[in-house]
């Protein structure tokens, strides 16, 4: 049985509304959700706060429909920015980002999109679906992102709110699919209310409109999401690894000073 995941439930100050969204996700069959803390980079002095604690929301976690297991709640940080210098806070060694299970960037410019694909320490790159894409998707940076294990996120709530937003969502998604060929795609809700959420099989069907095949559309709400979560775990733990290689006797002899070799002989 597939394990379904929604990696984008919008954090809000209304705790009751947030609880309702997580309860709805469990009722719809999602085994894991991520509460998305969004920070728009307006100044370099911006401070990233701590993620919300699960204990603040529930004393007992909601049970996933049809599985009789508690839903798993992750934390996610999304930075909305326009310049690569704004994303210095996204370094893997940053104490702020290490508090979050998933780190994403919403690039407003092609320059930042390219940097996110090739060098910035993130797990997800958010694709703008509420307006016409401000730049063309190019194959080299997208291939670089795929090789690095970074995923591209499409949110579906704008597509069910308004016909104009639906047109932008489908158009931008199809443009992305022409380049990435359906690889490393996840589909999330981006929900701000419980009523905006849809079941995973409905979302997989919606993925067909985004240019995905049936199997890839299902993976976009299941296996790809779990891979993105695993990428986040690796990002937090894999930095600072030191490799040691034992020298052979021949290497040690070659590295020995000539004067010592003369004394031995």
Automatic annotation (TrEMBL):
Q: Which GO terms describe its molecular function?
A: RNA binding
One Pfam family matching this protein: RNase_P_p30
On the tree of life, the source organism's domain of life is Eukaryota
Q: Which GO terms describe its cellular component?
A: nucleolar ribonuclease P complex
Q: Which InterPro entries match?
A: Pol/histidinol_Pase-like, RNase_P_p30
- Is the keyword Acetylation assigned to this protein? yes
Major site of localization recorded for this protein? nucleus
UniProt keywords (A-Z) are:
Acetylation, Nucleus, Phosphoprotein, rRNA processing, tRNA processing
Localisation: Nucleus, Nucleolus
Q: Return the Gene3D superfamilies for the record.
A: Metal-dependent hydrolases (3.20.20.140)
Query: Which biological processes are named by the entry's GO terms?
Result: rRNA processing; tRNA processing
The answer on whether this UniProt entry bears the keyword DNA-binding reads no
Give the record's subunit note: Component of nuclear RNase P and RNase MRP ribonucleoproteins. RNase P consists of a catalytic RNA moiety and about 10 protein subunits; POP1, POP4, POP5, POP7, RPP14, RPP21, RPP25, RPP30, RPP38 and RPP40. Within the RNase P complex, POP1, POP7 and RPP25 form the 'finger' subcomplex, POP5, RPP14, RPP40 and homodimeric RPP30 form the 'palm' subcomplex, and RPP21, POP4 and RPP38 form the 'wrist' subcomplex. All subunits of the RNase P complex interact with the catalytic RNA. Several subunits of RNase P are also part of the RNase MRP complex.
Family in the record: Belongs to the eukaryotic/archaeal RNase P protein component 3 family.
This chain's function reads: Component of ribonuclease P, a ribonucleoprotein complex that generates mature tRNA molecules by cleaving their 5'-ends. Also a component of the MRP ribonuclease complex, which cleaves pre-rRNA sequences.
Protein name per Swiss-Prot or TrEMBL: Ribonuclease P protein subunit p30
Gene name linked to the record: rpp30
């Amino acid at each position: 049985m597939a394990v379904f995941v929604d990696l984008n439930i919008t954090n809000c100050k209304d705790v009751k509304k947030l609880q309702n969204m997580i309860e709805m996700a469990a009722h719809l069959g999602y085994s894991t959700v991520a509460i998305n803390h969004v920070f728009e980079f307006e100044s370099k002095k911006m401070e990233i706060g701590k993620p919300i604690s699960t204990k603040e929301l529930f004393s007992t976690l909601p049970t996933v429909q049809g599985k009789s297991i508690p839903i798993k709640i992750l934390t996610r940080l999304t930075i909305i920015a326009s310049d690569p210098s704004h994303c210095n806070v996204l370094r893997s060694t940053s104490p702020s980002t290490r508090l979050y299970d998933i780190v994403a960037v919403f690039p407003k410019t092609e320059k930042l999109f390219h940097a996110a694909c090739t060098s910035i320490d993130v797990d997800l790159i958010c694709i703008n679906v509420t307006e016409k894409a401000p730049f063309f998707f190019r194959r080299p940076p997208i291939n670089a992102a795929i090789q690095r294990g970074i995923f591209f996120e499409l949110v579906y709530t704008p597509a069910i709110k308004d016909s104009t937003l639906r047109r932008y969502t489908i158009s931008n998604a199809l443009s992305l699919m022409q380049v990435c060929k359906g690889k490393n795609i996840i589909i999330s809700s981006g929900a701000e209310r419980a009523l905006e959420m849809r079941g995973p099989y409905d979302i997989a069907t919606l993925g067909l409109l985004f240019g995905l095949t049936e199997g890839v559309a299902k993976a976009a709400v299941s296996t790809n999401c779990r891979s993105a979560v695993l990428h986040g775990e690796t990002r937090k733990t894999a930095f600072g690894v030191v490799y040691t290689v034992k020298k052979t006797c021949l290497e040690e002899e070659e590295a020995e000073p000539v004067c010592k070799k003369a004394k031995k002989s």
